[in-house]
Amino acid sequence: MTAGFKCIGTFLVSWLCLIPAIGQEDAWPAGKSPVHITRLVTGDLLSRDEFMMYRTEQVRAVHYAEVCTAFGAARLAGWLEDEETLDRLSVRYLKVLDEGIENTANHVDANVYGILPLELYRHTGNQRFLQQGMELADVQWEHPLPGGLTNQTRYWIDDVWMIGSLQVQAFRITGDTTYLNRAALETAAYLKRLQQSNGLFHHGPDAPFFWGRGNGWVAAGLAEVISELPENHPQFGIISEGYMKMMTALLEYQAPGGMWRQLIDVESAWEETSSTAMFGYAMAVGVQEGILDPQVFGNCYNKAWLALTEKISPEGQAEGVCVGTGQSKQEEYYLNRPTVTGDFHGQAPILWLAYRLMLE
Predict the structure, then answer these.
(1) pTM greater than 0.90 (yes/no)
(2) What is the spatial distance between Cα 31 and Cα 34, in angstroms, rounded to a whole number?
């Protein structure tokens, strides 16, 4: 992708340019390098005996938060040519097939599981992973809605990642543009319907608040799609415009220490880990793809990374992660949500951001 976009938030450079852009491993302060953090967080994942499960009356699968964490771990292990970790990840997730763990494949939170076996297939060549991942990608469009959207469309902001990442991953593995076109169509529809005038996203139609992690899913999903979408694609214009608008909006709200907040635009809200990692990841993708100004956004995500490393325990667990949060009409509901340590919602995007930092 060519560099054709200029940051319109350059007035913020003066307070954002606090640290140099750094990507080399030995340039990071002790204990803060992406490789070191990756080993800690991946080790925590592989130390857990049980799967985190998603169980409701209608939807049952390995929980998307664990899936997204393992996806990040597999991507990193592949980049690092860490065969031992790839083997351990393969053994862990072959159990899903060997033990017949249910996946209803009827909901975005269930189907997104497919990103993991497809990533494992990329590095191991195991055909069982390929079949599993492609089945979940294909069934998502088995009975599309009029106009071509998946029948799993629900217009929740989380879906920009849940749907987009799976279809993009299927495109990466197969090279079949059918999957990329699906991701683009879905993403454009969500942008048209849900993006607010300031570039951010309300948690829901009856929840007019800019919740951090909800917006994080959008940011990461947009980054996944824009990283693969050619500029001559029919949906490129709306997606690139929506992505740039969101990234620029986020510049204003990064706290001085590098984090973003539970409610993005509420200065009194507490700083939250999962959203910070997601926003950092989305910005890193944009810089590396030549879309975002590295002088502005590069400093943002490097600063975010340094702040996030302060949240990682010696056991590889992220602190300050908001618990699962439903939609509410009350601002206090969001401000009073508790935090947890070691939740995969926070572990996953830390690995995604670490991966992007290693590419520099």
Answers:
(1) yes
(2) 9
Other Cβ atoms closer than 10 A to 356: 23
How many Cβ atoms from other residues are within 10 Å of residue 176's Cβ?
A: 12
Pull the structure tokens for residue 71.
Answer: 């996806």
Residue recorded with tokens 């599993």: 132
- Residues in Cβ contact with 82 at an 8 Å cutoff, skipping those fewer than 6 apart: 76
**Separation CA 201–CA 213 (nearest Å):** 11
Which are the contacts of 204, defined by CB distance < 8 A and separation ≥ 6?
A: 156, 157, 327
CA angle 187, 213, 34 (to 5 degrees): 100
pLDDT at 7 exceeding the cut of 70: no
- Residue 10 in this model has a pLDDT that exceeds 60: no
Place of tokens 């602190």: 319
From 17-26, 70-79, 186-195, 250-259, the region with the lowest mean pLDDT: 17-26
Residue the block writes with tokens 């002088």: 295
The answer to whether 159 and 151 have CB atoms below 8 angstroms apart is no
- The amino acid at residue 59 is V
CA-CA-CA-CA torsion sign (359, 312, 72, 108): negative
pLDDT, average across residues 232-256: 98
* Start-to-end Cα distance in the chain: 16
Q: Please give the Cα distance from 116 to 95 (Å, whole number).
A: 13
Residues 237 and 38: their CA atoms lie apart, in Å, by: 35
pLDDT tens track for 99-138: 999 999 999 999 999 999 999 999 999 999 999 999 999 9
pLDDT one-digit tens code per residue, 261-274? 999 999 999 999 99
What domains does the chain contain, in order, with CATH numbers?
10-358 (1.50.10.10)
The DSSP annotation for 13-55 comes to: HHHH--S----SGGGSPTT--HHHHHHHHHHHHHH-SS--EEE
The helix or strand, by DSSP H or E, that contains position 250, with its residue range, turns out to be: helix 236-251
Which segments of the chain are extended strands (E)?
A: 53-55, 60-62, 260-261, 271-272, 321-322, 339-340
